[in-house]
Design brief:
Distance between the termini: 19 Å
Structural class: alpha/beta
Strand content: 15-25%
Length: 358
């Protein structure tokens, strides 16, 4: 039985998007970022579709362990690293790559007689989140080198703060600083996220870390994934569960924020912010019924939204409604809601079934 509200996950689209990463970064190894439950698409399903990637990156150790327990043998990079000695033991036991970004982690490494781990040492070039400042990098690198012994197992990475803005000069400054500070380091390098891969060729190095583009989404404002020949992976659907006619002057929804200017046919769709549809989507946000766009009217409720069916006179109760997907870019819906596409795909809640298609 097909549920009223559901999301389809197109695994073939993920595979296609991986080939696009290889097109833009043909000489680099690919560390596919599948944190946050595969950006809301399902961790294990996404990992299987990306099995030809060279490594996976996740944020936390529990995500890495889910992958190991599921039988994935790929190299696993944990972007937040280990938090204590017990976690470090798990990294060693299950052959996980930690990102080392603070002195407390270095101190934990030093308590081990020697480790065979591959370590990713993070340099903060201007994101000012995780990582060591350039003035401290040489000293920290030497301490980690004394722990790891084999310098080729000390890789270095940084994160680009403004790469999604093609006109921002900070990205080139970060790239230049990174290259200057790590001269002489024998391990491998990684700088480019999705925006770096698509726009900043100077950021391409030994490894690239695509995230958003793997799911068919553009990291750039006012651009959509299809402009880069990326295919949307998630399509979100619901149904019309009722249709009614409002007279001129009648309102709809909480707060009575929308008032009918004329006799208007209104559709009620069985989805709301309880499913992850954005609470702040404004009146006019589009959705598709029978291939035609219809606008959202009134406020988004927990379980329902309302749409103006004036342009879709053939619409009937139980008709399918696309909220975003192949023919309706999630980037455009995010703009209407005053947010970014990351939050929409990651925010689809657990009560919405994900149906795999290929």
């Amino acid at each position: 039985m097909t549920p009223i509200t559901y999301a389809t996950i197109n695994l073939s689209a993920i595979e296609h998007n991986l080939t696009r990463v290889r097109y833009y970064a043909p000489k680099a190894q690919i560390m596919a970022v599948i944190k946050a439950d595969g950006y809301g698409h399902g961790l294990l399903q996404v990992a299987e579709a990306l099995k030809h990637a060279d490594a996976f990156a996740v944020a936390r150790i529990n995500e890495a362990m889910r992958l190991r327990y599921a039988g994935f043998k790929q190299r696993l990079v944990v972007l937040e690293g280990f938090m204590n000695a017990e976690e470090l033991d798990v990294f060693i036991q299950y052959n996980l790559d930690p990102v080392v970004h603070c002195v407390e982690q270095v101190a934990l490494l030093e308590k081990k007689a020697e480790t065979s781990l591959f370590v990713w040492l993070k340099l903060d070039t201007g994101m000012n989140r995780l990582g060591f400042k350039s003035a401290d990098f040489s000293y920290i690198y030497q301490r980690v080198k004394d722990c790891v012994k084999d310098e080729t197992k000390i890789n270095v990475m940084t994160h680009l703060a403004n790469a999604d803005d093609k006109k921002d000069t900070k990205t080139l400054a970060q790239i230049d600083l990174f290259k200057t500070i790590i001269k002489g380091v024998k391990g491998q390098r990684s700088m480019a996220n999705s925006a770096g891969i698509l726009e900043w060729t100077a950021a391409l190095s030994d490894w690239v870390r695509p995230g958003l583009m793997l799911y068919g989404i553009s990291p750039f404002e006012n651009e959509i994934g299809k402009q880069f020949n990326l295919k949307p992976v998630m399509s979100l659907y619901s149904q019309l569960i009722a249709i009614k006619t409002l007279q001129k002057g009648e309102t709809v929804g909480y707060g009575s924020t929308w008032i009918a200017e004329k006799t208007t046919r209104i559709g009620i769709v069985g989805i709301g912010y309880g499913d992850g549809y954005p609470r702040h989507a404004k009146t006019g946000t589009p959705m598709l019924i029978k291939g035609k766009q219809v606008p959202l009217v009134g406020r988004v409720s927990m379980d329902m939204i309302t749409v103006d069916l004036s342009s879709q006179l053939e619409a009937a109760v139980y008709d399918s409604v696309m909220l975003w997907g192949d023919d309706l870019a999630v980037e455009d819906i995010a703009t209407c809601a005053g947010t970014i596409a990351y939050t929409l795909v990651c925010g689809v809640t657990a009560r919405v079934p994900r149906l795999e298609i290929k």
